[in-house]
Design brief:
Number of strands: 10
CATH topology of the largest domain: Alpha/beta knot
Shape: elongated
Strand order of the largest sheet: 7-6-5-9-8-10
Radius of gyration: 19 Å
CATH class of the largest domain: Alpha Beta
Length: 234
């Protein structure tokens, strides 16, 4: 069974995946077994669909139907292929500006050409996301990738400079050029940017912090970086 945002029931989810529906995340009941459940697990793994194992109480809150231990959230958007998106932007008359991080509303307001997020570990794109973005999620291309580092390499091989927003940088963002084709990586709240990704970026930049708190939240920091790019390009 399904409604606008969820599908529940093991067989229903299997058929939805096979029919090409854009599944954002699947919640699976902890400790559940059986051949059909195993088939769903294998399918999720083969399609690199974001999933997590949760208590049955969580599934009961997500749907009132007979979920059979599995609930899937349908994405309200179709995700773009990163190769096709980068090629399309490079062939346009725009100076490419990409963002690694789901700060959708700010990205749309600052003319970002596309957002890149990782398939696993990110928050699902649902009704709350649409509301928070004020509809911007329908106006900017979003790509989901298996590994951020691979996407960084793809950007670099396409002539796009990758800049990491990190407090570990020596330069402030005002010392870095955003005028050429570039992509900005924002880290996750609390964890920041993976050290293995920091090793391969082209440049790093930080914001000046004048108070006693060591960092801003990601959305505020992202706004500062993107509007510095806008200022330099204006």
């Amino acid at each position: 069974m399904e409604n606008e945002t969820t599908i529940f029931g093991i067989r229903a989810i299997i058929e939805a995946v096979k029919s090409g529906k854009t599944i954002d995340k699947v919640f699976l009941q902890k400790g559940l077994h059986g051949d059909l459940f195993k088939e769903l697990e294998n399918l999720i793994r083969s399609e690199s669909i974001n999933s997590s194992y949760v208590p049955v109480e969580k599934l009961n809150r997500l749907t009132r139907g007979n979920h059979q231990g599995a609930v899937a959230q349908i994405s309200p958007i179709a995700f773009h292929d990163i190769d096709e998106l980068v090629m399309s932007v490079l062939q346009s008359d725009k100076t490419p500006l990409f963002l690694f991080g789901a700060i959708v509303r700010t990205a749309e307001c600052t003319g970002v050409n596309g957002i890149i997020i990782q398939k696993k570990g990110g928050a699902p794109i649902n009704g709350d996301t649409i509301k928070t973005s004020a509809g911007a999620i329908f106006k900017i291309p979003i790509c989901k990738v298996d590994h951020i580092k691979d996407a960084v390499f793809h950007m670099q091989s396409s002539g796009i400079k990758v800049i990491a927003a990190t407090e570990k940088a020596e330069n402030y963002l005002y010392d870095v050029s955003f005028k050429e084709p570039c992509a900005i990586i924002m880290g996750s709240e609390g964890r920041g940017i993976n050290p293995s990704v920091l090793k391969v970026v082209d440049d790093k930049a930080k914001l000046p912090i004048l108070g006693e708190i060591e960092s801003l939240n990601v959305s505020v920091a992202c706004g500062a970086f993107l509007y510095e790019a806008v200022r330099q390009r204006s």
